[in-house]
Amino acid sequence: MPRGAGIRYVDGPRLRRSLLAAADWVAAGRDDLNRLNVFPVPDGDTGTNLSLTLREVAQGLRDLGDAPPPSLPQVTEAMAEASVRGARGNSGMLLSQFLLGLREGLGDRLTAGTRDLAQAIQLGVDRLQESLDEPVEGTILTVAREAADEAALARDQPDFTVFLRRLVERAQQALQRTPDLLPVLKAAGVVDAGAEGFVRFLDGIKRLIEEGPVAQGAVDRLVPNAAAQADVAPERDYQFCTEVTVRSPGLPSSLEARQALRRLGGSIVVLQTGDLLKAHIHTDTPDAVFALGAGWGTVEYTKAEDVRAQRRALRARRSIVFVTDTACDLPDSLVLEHGIGLVPTQLILDGRVYRDRLELTAAEFFVRLRSGCDATTSQPTPQAFEDAFRDAVRAGDHVIAIVLSRLLSGTYASAEA
User: Which residue segment(s) compose the domain that 95 sits in?
Assistant: First the structure.
């Protein structure tokens, strides 16, 4: 949406600019969101997962190009496909489910007014609610629902500027009440991280209208690290946060997939758009999840993160924290056990940049390589080292960086910068 007042409709280019601004503003609060993360497990990655989910959405929108300008249905379809493909973690999966409902609600309209958007937001919340086996209040669900309620009340306000201000204000009020609804938040003295991420998503769009494009890069408010301090565990302490992405023309329905997954774990979220399905589950048997996915179609992506090890690493204050780049290819288990900070090498596949191990796993890399893509690498950016050093200073008393030699790579120069 353009800057200023009197905005009466949203079309493809306006929605794309709005979503890009939302992605930037969520990414700017990544570290704060990570430190707030105590539910459903205190593994300190909500900000990272939301940022990565929206980064994929942003890239999908940019890939549409500008000649000709994309239509509203083209933007919502690209948003939906990219959000499923890029959804990371519980919070990213839930935000993606909301975006799928938003796409469904906007349908084939070429332009949308506030009434149309209010209806689409409500459908997004409905789809979010339906995707949860065990809905919990005091989370992104609560805040999204209250935002939808306000959208319904404000739908006769034709100016998007006023409409969005009302939504953000109502969402912020709901966010402040999340500790009263979820005891684990009250015990930690924080609001829900996923819910705050959703508020930032809406606020990024509002800021675009009122102030212009938001500044990119981390905005550090030095929020206390509740994720590291929280002495809580989920009611059922499954070991692995597991995801699988499957593509097939004959996929099971989302409900059928959830029913099949229930015997394997909890915190289940299933996304589906077209011939693409992505499932998220906390489980002790990730291999069984992957096997189930393989029975549904072609497996495009798998992930299994040891959340118990993540919690141990978050709580450990170390005398020395080591930082290195991902060219050293350390095993995840070693990185977690010793709290090593990793700075991602940049992988460039067919001209698109990915951060090694953050946005592209080794398994995904080799799948792309076998497909014949053009692959090159580039050293990490100075900003990536700055972020890693900042995190290391928080985690330990001394920091030692071990990176590729100056004679072999520009990585050393990036670390020095």
Answer: 12-215
User: Any idea what the CATH number is for the domain that residue 264 is in?
Assistant: 3.30.70.2730
Q: Which residues of 188-220 are buried (b: 16+ CB within 10 A; e: fewer)?
A: bebbbbbbbbbbbbbbbbbbbbeeeebeeebee
Return the closest-CA partner of residue 394 out of 318, 330, 335, 338. Answer: 318
Cβ atoms 63, 252 nearer than 8 A: no
How far apart are the two ends of the chain, measured CA to CA in Å?
Answer: 37
Kind of pairing between the strands at 352-355 and 276-283: unpaired
Instruction: Identify the helix (H) or strand (E) that includes residue 370.
Output: helix 362-370
Overall pTM surpassing 0.85 (yes/no): no
Instruction: Report whether pLDDT(225) > 60.
Output: no
| Domain count of the fold of the chain | 3
Q: What stretches of 295-355 adopt beta strand conformation (E)?
A: 298-306, 318-325, 341-343, 346-349, 352-355
Task: Measure Cα distances from 21 to 27, 143, 349 in Å.
Answer: 10, 20, 25
How large a percentage of the chain has pLDDT more than 70? 89
| Count of other CB atoms within 10 angstroms of residue 26 | 26
Average pLDDT over residues 95-107: 95
∠ CA 217-220-226, nearest 5°, is: 130
* Residue whose C-alpha is closest to residue 190's, from 171, 173, 200, 176: 176
